[in-house]
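Chapter review: from sequence to fold.
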Amino acid sequence: KTFSKQSDGKYDLLSLRGFLIGLKQRYVNEKTVFMKQKLPKFLGALQESDLTGCFDQASFIHQDYPIQIVSTGLKEIFVPVKDVETLNKLQPNYDVIKQVSEQFDVIGMHLFAFGDDADAYGRNFAPLVGLNEESATGTSNGALSCYLFKHYKKKEYYDLRQGYSMGLPSQILVKLRYDSDKITDVQVGGT
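The token string follows.
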């Protein structure tokens, strides 16, 4: 990753995948910088049958929430899982996940389950771009917060966790600004 500071106090970050991301330094504490993301786009919904073969279990979906493609810069499939224990036990089939990603023109999928000590726990799979599973995914968690805002609970701050199934725990914080039901700003940071 390459950082360059601009004269207006903002930073540009060129990610490992070549995405240029504009950053503005906003501290929650000495260790957290927030990255501004694009406003969310809620795209198509999928059926549970569209994910057949992606994971070793057949019935892991939380039936009260939709499987939906959401983007705050990168399109991903967001998959609600019935509980954190099930989420962490799922064994992915990367070849099938890659095929589904190609079929729906997305970078990958982000599975999540609601947590007791965090808004949600997640797992991110993007074998299409060479990332079988990632332990901390800011772009995905920004979009997940927008999904949660729309379908679950409207709030300003989301506390999300990822990487626990890999033994690489991360905490991702997302701040949303909104006017009524419309999200006007998405910022992601974490440790």
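Two observations follow directly from the output. The chain has three helices and 13 strands. Residues 16-30 have pLDDT under 50 and may be disordered.
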